[in-house]
Structure formats: structure tokens, C-alpha cells
Backbone:
């Protein structure tokens, strides 16, 4: 399916915005200007952006910690993201939680939490609600290769399978779970091999090809929306940095990183855009816009107030 | 009003809430065709259909997680743990996902996990545990533990209507051993309010769940000896009704805290701490606890009988306190 230029530029904008914000946060981490750890998805942006752009606006997503692009496509603003990283009241958690641990159900985002794979059964429950209410909406769960070792991965996939839920499972297989390589995570070749046991279709795609991601998720979403049940999409990619920025990832062979650097999803997509003869000034305009938004986000966050200490006691219970 | 069992009261609460609110649905093991391990949901599948009475795979973390997701998008799930003991399999979803969600994001997670708990049925270490303290210690959860059919119905309805995740501890022994008058129409009892099950002036006996029956029996015995014991049924363990606890302690000057869960770090420890801090100058005797020893729940009847507090053991402690 050939996308229109405007749709291609939307993908490009979100790819660049995701990279731009995360590059800035990395820099600020090194400068000691952010609070806590720094978790990015450098090199994995095609998965979050390509998939989220393939969904309907009211489909519900449960992104992982490599999925800033999903948040941005769903409407989270760069300012909110920066405020979150700086522990400010203007962040989506009002300083209650850090980094990429946020969500907003009004914008159809389930907040990520640290125990890996917890979002998978939760997303299945969202899909269950849609099925019960006969709503033509779907849920999407994102997770990595490491999460696929946890029970919640298997319990969530199986539950979705037996109840035939409208859900798409997206595995961001970046080959390392912190320092542990895939070969120590599982004795099969693909995460999809695990998923096959649950009796619904699985596909393996090039996770650094944003259009391949878009197409695969579009198809899986259509299938789920039509009552066809879950699909598992394994996106092969590579974690290009440490687990978080404190981690130099010295355990990853340099040649492997070099090989994947040549597969950078944004550079590849820029190549495609030029093939499609998208005018250079349109690409330049995206870059300018992103730079400006990142600057504004940093400025906003650094000026915005920290929470008052007494707010630590607020919000334990809903009233 | 009608006389009914604790089990029937729970069943009625569920039935009525499902009947009047389409958002309420059930998830759990064997709750559909089979009607639940304890037959709480017998007949529900026929009445409400398989969309709302969902037999799940044997995967507690999976279906608790699913309940959380459904709650986040506007449903009111009620999860049945087949036995409270299996709730540990879903611990992570409960304490990390459900409990912290509102604090982090300001979004309510209105769901109930029904946990059939407790001993005295000779069911051994994996079908008898009292898990309430695990959840009281995790901010963001409400923990409810009714002792009578009346409370069971009113508190379950309140739990289902509450905006927070509620661990509803229903005592298995009481299912068929507790009977009482229950309104057949709609009523709710507020979460977080204790109930004085018996007025007294000499000793405050603070307890909940199946120990309320035992406490009342022991109080009757003490009354014959001229000692009037006030039995405070906590009904909700989180939030804890410290006002009711302190009022009874200040009134009587002596206190016995009884629970079936192990004594070490049980809710009794917290209650004792509150009393020591807030009512120290009203005390005429040491704050006393009677609870299970620090062992798993043993299986064989003489072992389990030794393990559990009961009316006789409670009366013995009350006599010690009375003569202090």
C-alpha cells in the first residue's frame, strides 16, 4: 500500500520528534539536568511510530519503555514529556513517577510500569471491555524480548487467544534485555516461536522499516477489529544504547552495533522519502519544527514548578 | 428482611449489582458453567450470559491484569479468586499495577477481587491462608473483611461501587456457618467504618472476619462472670477505622486484638501501635494480641485447632486482662 506524501511526512515528523526529544534527554542526563534514569528507544523509533500511526484514534495502546513514539502519536506533547523527566508538576504524573512511566487513558494510553509484561494482560482486559461492549476498537500491547520470558506475557497472550480478543501484540525485539542477549532469554530463534503456541497468527518483520511496521500493524488491526482475534507481530531491531543511560552497554559487540547503525530507521526512511521525491524543503521543515518543539519543551519544563512536598500524600485513593 | 447465609448474601450482592449495572462483570476460574468452587455464581451464566460471566484460563495474574484493563476503560470487573491463597500468583498486578495507578496517573481503577480466605475447614497450607496484611501494606488498595451476612452484602455492594481496587476477603468458614437477617432490597454499607457488634465497658475486643463469632461467644461467657466485653468488628481493614478503635479503648481501658492471620506484622501490630501512640494514658493493661503462630496453616485437625484462635482461647486472654 503506497502512502500519500502527507502521511509519509507525518511518519517522518514523529520519527524525528521521538529521536529529537530522546537525544535531548540523553544530553541533559549527562549534564545532570534531569531527575533519575534515562530510558530511550534510539534506533527503535520505526516500531513505535509506524505502529501507532496505523491505529484508529480511539484504539488503546499500552506502550513499553522504548515507545515514546507511541505516546507522541497519541497526542502526548513534548512539553509534558520533558516536565515528566524533570519531575515537574506539569508532567503527566505530577512528579509521582518518572521518565517514560506515564499514560493517559483519556488519550487512550495505558501507563507503563517497571515490571515487564504487566501491560500485556492489562491491554487484553481493555480489548475484553471492547468485545463485551461491541465497540469497534482494539487494544495494542507493546513489550520487548525480555518481557516474553515473564508469565504475564504467556498469560496475556493465552487469555486473548481463548477469548478471541481484538488485540495486537507488538514485540520490540531489540535483542538485549539489559545485559542479557536473546540467546540467554530463550532457546528458540524468535519471540514469535513462543507466541505460536497460543494459536493465532504471528508475523516477523523488519522493525527498522517504518513502512513495513505500518503495513503489518494496519493488517493486524483490521483483522482484530473485524473479530478475527489477536495477531502477534515481532519487530526485529537492535537496542543501540544501554538499557538506560547509566549503562555503556560494553557487553554488546561493537560490530553488531555498527551493522545495525547502517540500518538506522530514520536514515532509511529519509532515503525512501527522497526516492518518492518528497521535496527537500518539506523534510527541512520537519527538522526545523522538531528542533523548535524540543527547545520549547526544555524551556517549558525547566521553568515549570516542582510539586509541593505535601502533594506526596495526595491521590492514593480515588474519591 | 430474610434470613440467609453469608454465602447467599454475597451471591445476592453480586446478582443485584450485575442486574442494575451493565458495567459489572465477573472473571475467574470455574465461575461459569460450574458456578464457582463454592457455588457463589451458580445460575449467573444463564442469567447474565458468557460476556459477563467469564471462565478464564488458570492464570491469576492474567485475569487480574485483564480486570485492571477493563476497569481503566469504564467497566466494573469483579474477579473471583478460587481461593485467596492463589492471589499471590497475581500479587504483582495487584500491588504494582492496580494499587499505584491512581496515585501515579489520577485514573481510577474500580475493581473488586473476591478472596475466599481463612481456615477451620481442614484444608491445609494452600487453601486456608489469610492474605489481608499483604495488601494492607500496599498503599492504594482497600481491604474489606465482613463477618456477618448483613455486612457481607452491604460491603460487597459498596466495594463494587467504589472507585478503587478492593480486596474483598470473604471467609470460607462463614459461607455456611454464618446466618442472619439481611434486607432483600438495595443497601450499601460504607467502607472504612467499624461496627460495634456488642457493647461493653470493661475490655475492648478488636477483631474481624470469622473471629467475630468467636469473640461474641467468648464475650457471652465473660458476661456470665460479670465482665462486659465490647466487640469491635473492623469490617474494613484499609482504610482502618482508628476512631472506633480508640473510642472503644478509651471507654474500656483494656484491649485484646484478635485475628486469624499470623501475629507477626499482622493488622493487630498496626492497631497496637495506633493505640500505644494515641491512647497510652487510657490504658490499664498491656495491649494484648491473640493471633495465629508464625507457621503455615497446618492441615490435620488437631494441628489446625491448635493453630487457630477460638472462643476458648479468647476467653482465656480476656480473663487474664480482666484480672490484670
Residues:
Amino acid at each position: 500500500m503506497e502512502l500519500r506524501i502527507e502521511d509519509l511526512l507525518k511518519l517522518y515528523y514523529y520519527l524525528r520528534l521521538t529521536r529529537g526529544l530522546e537525544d535531548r534527554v540523553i544530553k541533559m542526563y549527562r549534564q545532570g539536568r534531569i531527575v533519575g534514569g534515562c530510558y530511550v528507544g534510539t534506533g527503535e523509533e520505526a516500531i513505535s511510530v509506524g505502529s501507532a500511526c496505523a491505529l484508529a484514534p480511539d484504539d488503546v495502546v499500552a506502550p513499553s519503555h522504548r515507545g515514546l513514539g507511541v505516546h507522541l502519536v497519541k497526542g502526548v506533547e513534548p512539553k509534558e514529556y520533558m516536565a515528566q523527566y524533570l519531575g515537574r508538576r506539569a508532567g503527566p504524573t505530577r512528579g509521582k513517577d518518572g521518565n517514560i512511566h506515564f499514560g493517559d487513558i483519556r488519550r487512550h494510553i495505558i501507563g507503563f510500569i517497571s515490571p515487564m509484561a504487566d501491560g500485556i494482560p492489562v491491554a487484553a482486559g481493555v480489548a475484553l471491555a471492547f468485545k463485551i461492549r461491541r465497540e469497534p476498537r482494539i487494544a495494542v500491547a507493546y513489550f520487548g524480548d525480555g518481557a516474553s520470558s515473564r508469565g504475564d506475557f504467556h498469560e496475556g497472550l493465552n487469555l486473548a487467544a481463548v477469548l478471541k480478543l481484538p488485540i495486537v501484540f507488538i514485540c520490540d525485539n531489540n535483542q538485549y534485555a539489559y545485559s542479557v542477549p536473546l540467546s540467554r532469554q530463550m532457546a528458540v530463534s524468535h519471540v514469535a516461536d513462543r507466541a505460536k503456541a497460543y494459536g493465532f497468527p504471528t508475523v516477523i518483520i523488519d522493525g527498522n522499516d517504518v513502512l513495513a511496521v505500518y503495513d503489518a500493524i494496519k493488517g493486524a488491526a483490521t483483522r482484530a477489529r473485524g473479530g478475527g482475534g489477536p495477531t502477534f507481530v515481532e519487530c526485529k531491531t537492535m537496542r543501540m544504547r544501554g538499557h538506560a543511560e547509566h549503562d555503556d552497554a560494553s557487553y554488546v559487540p561493537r560490530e553488531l552495533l555498527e551493522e545495525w547503525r547502517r540500518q538506522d530507521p530514520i536514515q532509511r526512511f529519509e532515503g525512501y522519502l527522497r526516492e518518492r521525491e518528497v521535496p527537500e524543503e518539506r523534510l527541512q521543515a520537519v527538522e526545523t519544527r522538531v528542533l523548535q518543539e524540543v527547545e520549547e519543551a526544555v524551556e517549558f519544563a525547566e521553568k515549570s514548578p516542582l510539586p509541593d512536598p505535601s502533594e506526596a500524600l495526595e491521590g492514593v485513593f480515588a474519591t | 428482611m430474610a434470613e440467609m447465609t453469608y454465602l447467599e448474601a454475597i451471591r445476592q450482592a453480586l446478582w443485584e449489582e450485575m442486574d442494575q449495572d451493565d458495567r459489572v462483570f465477573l472473571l475467574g476460574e470455574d465461575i461459569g458453567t460450574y458456578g464457582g468452587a463454592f457455588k457463589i455464581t451458580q445460575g449467573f451464566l444463564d442469567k447474565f450470559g458468557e460476556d459477563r460471566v467469564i471462565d478464564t484460563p488458570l492464570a491469576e495474574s492474567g485475569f487480574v491484569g485483564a480486570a485492571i484493563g477493563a476497569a481503566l476503560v469504564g467497566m466494573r470487573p469483579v474477579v473471583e479468586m478460587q481461593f485467596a491463597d492463589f492471589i499471590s500468583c497475581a500479587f504483582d498486578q495487584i500491588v504494582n499495577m492496580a494499587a499505584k495507578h491512581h496515585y501515579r496517573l489520577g485514573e481510577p481503577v474500580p475493581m473488586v477481587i473476591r478472596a475466599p480466605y481463612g481456615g477451620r475447614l481442614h484444608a491445609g497450607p494452600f487453601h486456608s491462608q489469610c492474605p489481608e496484611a499483604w495488601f494492607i501494606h500496599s498503599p492504594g488498595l482497600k481491604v474489606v473483611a465482613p463477618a456477618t451476612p448483613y455486612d457481607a452484602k452491604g460491603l460487597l455492594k459498596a466495594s463494587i461501587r467504589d472507585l478503587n481496587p478492593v480486596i474483598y476477603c470473604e471467609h470460607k468458614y462463614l459461607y455456611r456457618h454464618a446466618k442472619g437477617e439481611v434486607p432483600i432490597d438495595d443497601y450499601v454499607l460504607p467502607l472504612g467504618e467499624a461496627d460495634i457488634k456488642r457493647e461493653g465497658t470493661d475490655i475492648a475486643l478488636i477483631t474481624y472476619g470469622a473471629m467475630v463469632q468467636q469473640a461474641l461467644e467468648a464475650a457471652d461467657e465473660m458476661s456470665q462472670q460479670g465482665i462486659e466485653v465490647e466487640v469491635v468488628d473492623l469490617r474494613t481493614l484499609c482504610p482502618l477505622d482508628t476512631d472506633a478503635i480508640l473510642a472503644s479503648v478509651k471507654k474500656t481501658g483494656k484491649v485484646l486484638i484478635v485475628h486469624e492471620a499470623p501475629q507477626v506484622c499482622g493488622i493487630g501490630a498496626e492497631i497496637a501501635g495506633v493505640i500505644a501512640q494515641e491512647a497510652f494514658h487510657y490504658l490499664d493493661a498491656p495491649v494484648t494480641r491473640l493471633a495465629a503462630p508464625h507457621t503455615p496453616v497446618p492441615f490435620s485437625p488437631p494441628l489446625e485447632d491448635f493453630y487457630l484462635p477460638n472462643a476458648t482461647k479468647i476467653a482465656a486472654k480476656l480473663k487474664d486482662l480482666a484480672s490484670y
Remarks:
- The longest helix of chain B spans residues 6-20.
- The radius of gyration of chain B is 19 Å.
